[in-house]
Amino acid sequence: MASFSAVAYYIPYSSSFFPNKPPKFNNRRRNPVVKFTCKAKNGETSPGKLDRRDVLLGLGGLYSTTSLSANPMALADPALPDFKDCIDATQPNKTLINCCPPAPSRIKDYVPSATTVNTRISAQSVEVGSDYYNKYTEAIQKMKNLSPSDPRNFRQQANVHCAYCDGGYTLKGSPKLLYEVHNSWLFFPWHRWYVYFFEKICQKLIHDDTFTLPFWNWDAPQGMQIPSIYNSNVISPLYDCFRNPDHLPPTVINLEWSYGDVQVDPKIQIEYNLAIMYTQMITQSKTPNDFFGKAYRAGDDITTLDGAGTIEQTPHNHVHSWTGTAVDQSNPIDMGALYSAARDPIFFAHCCAI
Ligand SMILES: [Cu+2]
């Protein structure tokens, strides 16, 4: 257990997604580290240049598929959490919370074994009472029914997000800095692995290794509201009472929402949302770092990095705060706050969309 507390150092960068007024569009212009070209001629890539395919390959394949021997981004120790000691995380109201997972006897490196690819489906297309819905709710209910000390228990899994995002670990090699998986290029890969293992637990519990989680397609008009499966009835394991009551279906999501925004005509909101997506995906994503986020390496202070990529900032953060409760703006819970976001099952559909 913790031998010291997070507040001994600092309150995490942001313990809610948007405690105050969220940033608007990412209008910053950074000096591009890597230039972006639409397509390399004859399959060539030249040092310092990437084509769009490489951007879409993701961080895992990005630097191995291009000639980036001169790219300093690949040449530093990675930012890692120090697993020696898990400390209390900090809620938006500054109170501490213990999100630490059960201490493993040993940590084993995971080796992926899957040879097939299962396609996720949109949450909006799932009908309440369908076979898929029954499987999904069975998996989540079984996770919630597991012993509270079982690391696969739903609350334990929610706490993983809390521990890694809200000050549960220090940065390895820098005991005065906290580790954080938001606001940098860690955002995409960390969340994708998190969802991957959550999905594996679901598969195991319902004895179906083809099961996939649904994704919340908030970037398409038909997905721009809370999918009905999460709001069907209050005893469903997919339901969460800590969502903003003003934003339940059929309210259309505002992908750039912040406290105080008024609802506009749904058709206009959808047009705004599509424009926001275009802006974040294309106009503002001139470089890989714009899109994925800034490099976060050993020794870096995440509180001063200001490194979130375009999609993490908007719409990702805004979907969180739009969905989470607005009852107490100074102390948002569930989807509206880092420490509690994954307590809402819709969190995993949201993360499957990024
Ligand atoms: Cu997160």
UniProtKB/TrEMBL annotation:
The keyword Metal-binding applies. The keyword Thylakoid does not apply. Pfam families: Tyrosinase (PF00264). PROSITE patterns: TYROSINASE_1 (PS00497). GO terms for molecular function: metal ion binding. Keywords: Copper, Metal-binding. InterPro entries: Di-copper_centre_dom_sf, Tyrosinase/Hemocyanin, Tyrosinase_Cu-bd. Residues 182-199 form the Tyrosinase copper-binding domain. PANTHER family: SHKT DOMAIN-CONTAINING PROTEIN (PTHR11474:SF76), TYROSINASE FAMILY MEMBER (PTHR11474). This is Polyphenol oxidase A1. It comes from Forsythia ovata.
